[in-house]
Design brief:
alpha/beta; 7-stranded mixed beta sheet; 4-stranded antiparallel beta sheet; 13 strands; 15% strand; globular
Length: 368
Amino acid sequence: MSIQFGPDYVRAIAPYQGGKPIAEVAREFGLDEAKIIKLASNENPLGMPESAKQAMLGAMADLGRYPDANGFELKQAITKKYDVPAEWITLGNGSNDILELAAHAFVQPGQSVVYAEFSFAVYALATQAVGARAIVVAARDYGHDLDAMAKAITADTRLVFIANPNNPTGTFIPAADIAAFLAKVPQDVVVVLDEAYNEYLAPELQYESIAWVRQYPNLLVSRTLSKAYGLAGLRIGFGIAQPAITDLLNRIRQPFNVNSAAQAAAIAALNDSAFLQKSARLNADGYKQLTGAFDAMNLEYVQSYGNFVLVRVGNDDGAGARVNLELLKKGVIVRPVGNYGLPQWLRISIGLPEENAAFIDALKSVLS
């Protein structure tokens, strides 16, 4: 009999699968890397801002030394931008790190975590990793049903994950609905409000979630610089909460979880409002380009508030995988979402105009 290491709940985890890298697709299908288009991972098609690149290069001279474990200067930049004390901030190796830290800090094996159907895969992974019980609440119109989620909270619930906008569906929860939900949640249940795509919201939809942090000691707001700020490869995110939460998160996070280059680039990016505005404009135009094509092709899609669109490419459960494979053969990488229970759909990241156009042409060819 072979020895099995670790608890059953860890062995049951299916590892997270990211979007296929360009180099892998080139090898697998014998394609030229330079001609492959990747619209799979919700990255900023503009890449990283020049301001961040220069700041990162400046930090390279000191990479022989450990980074500032407390991230003093980066926390000062976040403090200035969001008007919160430094002790309310937890730095993460991407916002994924914040989500996982929350599960480890607040949930014990056998306790429960509430999240929505069709929400970010890491919520399930973080729940499994601590041996907790998942309470998955059925989606409403591919998004969160907050009334049902509030009713689903049990005596042993310790954590609730909410994504706004939601990945992979792109749905959005209005501020009033979130405020009403927070008022219902027991004070001993931590709510993680995951705002990875917040910067892509139209101005009229923007809301001040930090005001809720001041009101609710059990609220943790999670942000990332991987999307609109263009720093996906540097892996940096942060959480904002009152000290009762951040104190515990900072006790268990790795002491050097955000490297020096990432800290320098993040400070520059947070202060580069012109790049952020350019990214938002490009995304809005790209959304119209993709959805206009989907309308013309009579394809169903979910109205999205992020930098991606979920589109149905067939009616049978093999449609998503089948169309995805044919797109890969044409050098276009998108994201199948069968692992989310959406096998008929693909998630398309919004790219540059010419990338969107190449995808549209390839999709027309495959579906014809």
